[in-house]
C-alpha cells in the first residue's frame, strides 16, 4: 500500500513540474521551407551606417551568400557562413515554425542536443513562395524597433 501511495505522489509531482514547451506547429509553412537555401540579401533601415551582429555570430552582411538546409520532418538542419572576409562558421541547427508564424531556431554545437541549449532566436516568417521566403528579426536601434529582413532563395 505504501508503494502505491509513494508512486502516486511521485507521478503527481512529475506531471505537475513538467513545463509545457510544446507549441502547435505550422506544418505547411515548414514543408515549404524544406530543402537547401541561400541568403540572397540582408536589409534594414540605416544599413549603411549601422552594423548588426546577426545571431551573435557575425555582421549581418556576412550572412549574404550563407547556405542553409532545412529538414521539415525532424526540424533539424545546417547553416554555414562562407563569405570571404567574414568568420567561417558552420553548425547544425534545430528549428520549427509555430502557428503564430514565428520561426524558432537554436544553433547547436556538434553533437549537442537541442534541449541542452537554453538560448535561441525567434524571427517572423514573411512572403513565403516556392522559391523564396523572408525571416524578419526585430531589433532595437536607438529607442525604436526596426526590422532586419533576411531574404532566402531556394537552391536547385
Runs in which pLDDT lies below 50 for 5 or more consecutive residues are 2-22
Give the overall silhouette.
globular
- Using only C-alpha atoms, the radius of gyration works out to 19 Å
Biggest sheet details:
8 strands, antiparallel, barrel
Q: Could you spell the SSE succession in H and E letters? A: HHEEEEEEEEEE
Task: Report the CATH architecture.
Answer: Beta Barrel
Could you give the count of β-strands?
Answer: 10
Helix content: 10-25%
Portion in beta strands: 35-45%
CATH hierarchy class name: Mainly Beta
| CATH topology descriptor | Lipocalin
Give the count of helical stretches: 2
Rounded mean pLDDT score: 81
Lateral strand order in the biggest sheet: 1-4-5-6-7-8-9-10
* N-C termini distance: 65 Å
Protein name: Lipocalin-like protein
Signal peptide: 1-21
Keywords: Signal
Organism: Flavobacterium lacus
Amino acid at each position: 500500500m505504501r508503494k502505491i501511495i509513494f508512486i502516486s505522489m511521485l507521478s503527481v509531482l512529475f506531471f505537475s513540474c513538467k513545463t509545457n514547451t510544446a507549441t502547435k506547429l505550422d506544418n505547411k509553412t515548414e514543408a515549404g521551407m524544406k530543402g537547401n537555401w541561400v541568403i540572397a540579401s540582408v536589409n534594414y533601415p540605416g544599413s549603411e551606417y549601422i552594423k548588426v551582429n546577426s545571431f551573435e555570430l557575425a555582421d549581418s552582411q556576412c550572412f549574404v551568400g550563407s547556405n542553409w538546409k532545412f529538414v521539415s520532418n525532424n526540424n533539424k538542419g545546417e547553416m554555414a557562413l562562407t563569405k570571404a572576409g567574414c568568420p567561417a562558421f558552420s553548425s547544425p541547427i534545430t528549428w520549427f515554425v509555430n502557428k503564430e508564424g514565428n520561426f524558432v531556431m537554436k544553433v547547436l554545437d556538434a553533437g549537442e542536443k537541442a534541449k541542452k541549449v537554453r538560448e535561441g532566436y525567434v524571427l517572423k516568417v514573411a512572403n513565403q513562395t516556392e522559391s523564396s521566403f523572408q525571416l524578419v528579426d526585430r531589433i532595437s536601434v536607438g529607442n525604436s524597433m526596426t526590422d532586419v529582413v533576411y531574404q532566402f532563395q531556394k537552391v536547385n
